[in-house]
Amino acid sequence: MAAPVRTGDEVELSVDSLAYGGNGVGRLNGFVVFVRGGLPGDRVRARVTKVKRGFAEGVSLAVLEPSPHRVEAPCRHFGVCGGCRFQDLAYDEQLAAKEQQVRDALVRIGRISEPPLEPIVPATSLYRYRNKLEYSFARTEAGVDLGFHRAGRWDEVIGVDECLLASELGNRVRLAVRDWAREEQLEPYDQATGEGYLRHLVYREGRATGQVLVTLVTAPGERFETGYFVDVLRRFPEVRSIHWAVNDTPAERTNLPTRLLFGEEAIEEEILGLRFRLRPGAFLQTNTEMAERLYELTCEVAGLTGREQVFDLYCGTGTIALALAGAASEVWGVEISEEAVACAIENAARNGIANARFVAGNVGQVLEELVERAGTPDVVVVDPPRAGLAGKALRRTGALRAARIVYVSCNPTTLASDIRVLREEYGYELVRCRPLDMFPHTPHVESVSALELRADVGG
Ligand SMILES: C[S@@+](CC[C@H](N)C(=O)[O-])C[C@H]1O[C@@H](n2cnc3c(N)ncnc32)[C@H](O)[C@@H]1O
User: Fold this and answer.
1) Residues in contact with ligand 1 (CB, 6 Å cut-off)
2) What is the number of other CB atoms lying within 10 angstroms of the CB of residue 208?
3) pTM, to two decimals
4) What is the CATH number of the domain that holds 368?
5) Is 410 labeled as catalytic in the residue annotation?
6) Which of 137, 265, 329, 454 is the 20 to 30 Å CA partner of 103?
7) Residue closest by Cα to atom 26 of ligand 1
8) In the structure, what pLDDT confidence band is assigned to residue 458 with cuts at 50, 70 and 90?
9) What is the C-alpha separation between 38 and 13, in angstroms, rounded?
10) Are residue 234 and residue 301 in the same domain, yes or no?
């Protein structure tokens, strides 16, 4: 269909649904227009910003008739802060939209006409659910401030008085560090000029243990009195570990080496009764409550009897492997980050789990060698990054011919395209898929799927 619009046009349209990624979907005589800022049920005036072959993109300029699903956003920074996009959409509608996105992906990309989709698992807490927040320092009218990027801008940071996704303690710690920066007259780092000093504050909280780890990230040089910084944070007894990292490049970097300024090297979080060590750079799901639901669901979908050989691919710090170990004969985790593998091994020992082993490596490259060491798996769990089972990983995983693959996904589009290959080329059938909302008010949606090797192709 020829596009009925051109870039720069202003159009009026009704928004029917939310596409994956969070833009509203409207139609002009059947031609799809993705509208940033449009919610399902809205009639909006939008400006077209891009026209492609089969669709256009635009941005909402005015809501002409608001959706009946619109609600008051409780956060005072809503709309300005880039953090939460859907606080103004009723939570039931957020859930319905996310469930629909997973269904659409399985139908359109996965080519499954009637996917075995189960109802989405809602989040237990709609606010204050994050166990990790990364704030940027910036200069605002109020002075040095700490906050998040302005919505739609990578080069501008807004100060935040209260973040409703952080715990109350997390908010108090951030304000204490902001006040310290003002008192010490330290300048925020400016990425454009390379001047200034303070870059980020990373706050991590073991939500089940109450332990807090704080990492200050600065430009090079020791321009603050470390002892006083520690004193400021030690007013909070929960703060058990204080680190300092230096980023000497203009680019944002994660996993920087850190210097311990106070306390223990790591804190702990507890998930499903297991203790996990949290070092500054170690990955852990950022919503503890929902990580428990995710891992419970993964265990249920894996359906282990105690006799299985299990591979946990993309295992991070070993959370899924350790959650499954009690119900398996043996679990092998594979993970590219050596630091995460070291944490996984430590976590296994900390929890007295002897039948979980971990190897560092790229899933696409180490699977054949792992099979030689460990034998063929009965069940394979995969929890890849957003890009899915990229490159050789998909083919090598399919070629394992495990009776069951449990696919934990944070991106329904790559999930669906991987499932399509596993169905069409490796003889797997999708038997269940259950979406899960770990991040209310954001476009993210997780899911856990089970694929089974069809009897006619199984060994
Ligand atoms: C979504 S996280 C899952 C972590 C873990 N399952 C959890 O729930 O905490 C994905 C993990 O895959 C790892 N990773 C990314 N690419 C990889 C690759 N090619 N091979 C192995 N691991 C990889 C990342 O380092 C990250 O720890």
Assistant:
1) 283-285, 314-316, 319-320, 334-337, 340, 362-364, 383-385, 410
2) 18
3) 0.94
4) 3.40.50.150
5) yes
6) 454
7) 316
8) low
9) 10
10) no
